[in-house]
Specification:
The chain is of the alpha/beta class and 359 residues long. It has one domain: Divalent-metal-dependent TIM barrel enzymes (TIM Barrel). It contains 14 helices and twelve strands. It has an eight-stranded parallel barrel, surrounded by five helices. It has a four-stranded antiparallel beta sheet with strand order 5-6-11-10. It is globular and about 55 Å long. The chain starts with a strand and ends with a helix. The mean pLDDT is 92. The structure holds manganese (II) ion (MN). The site of manganese (II) ion has 5 residues, from loops.
Amino acid sequence: MKMTFRWFGSTDDSVTLEQIRQIPGMTGIVGALFDVPVGEVWPIEKIAKLKKEVEDAGLELEIIESVNIHDDIKIGLPTRDKYIENYSQTIRNLAQYGIKVICYNFMPVFDWTRTNLAKELADKSTVLSYEQGVVDKIDPTAMLETFKSSANGFSLPGWEPERMATLKELFSKYEGLTEDTLFDNLKYFLEGVIPTCIECDVKLAIHPDDPPWPIFGLPRIVKNEADLERIIGLVDSPYNGLTLCSGCLGANPANDIPKLIRRFGAMGRIHFAHVRNIYIHENGDFDESSHLSCDGSLDLFEIMKAYHDIGFTGYIRPDHGRMIWGEKVRPGYGLYDRALGVTYLNGLWEAIGKMAQVK
Ligand SMILES: [Mn+2]
């Protein structure tokens, strides 16, 4: 496995490349361009600049999260062909700079959703958390206010103030869209871009829906084993792959994460591993706990063992972390707790590897 760390760029991230480089076992950055509007082609010059910045710091840039998909593609509007061509061009541009994997998601309107970006735990650390009751009661357009108060000035992806202004219009475009139609639209997208992926040797890795169930009346199609199976069958190519996010799929206790890793990993379809733990409350609400198995509901030993057993050589990152030691940065993306997560995952990996040799 190749240990990586998500970084939001020198202007948007207070965590520095130098700090990331000093985390033991760190090999690379999970990068992205955040100032290119969704649907536009990523310019060569900006990719080149990011690549140089990361490499100058002694790290690799081989994986991107995310190149986001324009809503017109998800909805299936006639304008999608233009955006699919743009996406293909972005793939070509990224390939020129040695990008091997692109993570993306196919969630309508919103990216990952939480109801509290700074829930305080007993040890005074703060974490991202999700309460279904809050989501059920609140109009998405009103939720922005909830976030403003708790996010250190940051907003969730998809919840940016300028986007909220057009939210009602966007929701109306999704009206009547079913899961089957969304699958059809994903297939149309994949059939459009996978030939370019093959030509450029860039693998796509779809991220699961977070949380893995429909919210705000919008359909979601990356929720469980059956969905993942259907997705990899839409275009049967290793270039049509998965980002297996443990904390995301794991929010539904019916999803057996080690089983999913063994199944889809053995098929060579997992290109990116997001590994983190969550604590699921009795009513199904959840908090993003520390990575340690006993702090959450997922068994991180079993998860790492599954990756080890399939001989995983792809990219891995600690997905989110708690806010600890007085750090005040983007919720979920502090340096300290993610670095602790990396060290824990590396420790498990080393122990599992050595125990396997003893046998
Ligand atoms: Mn994830």
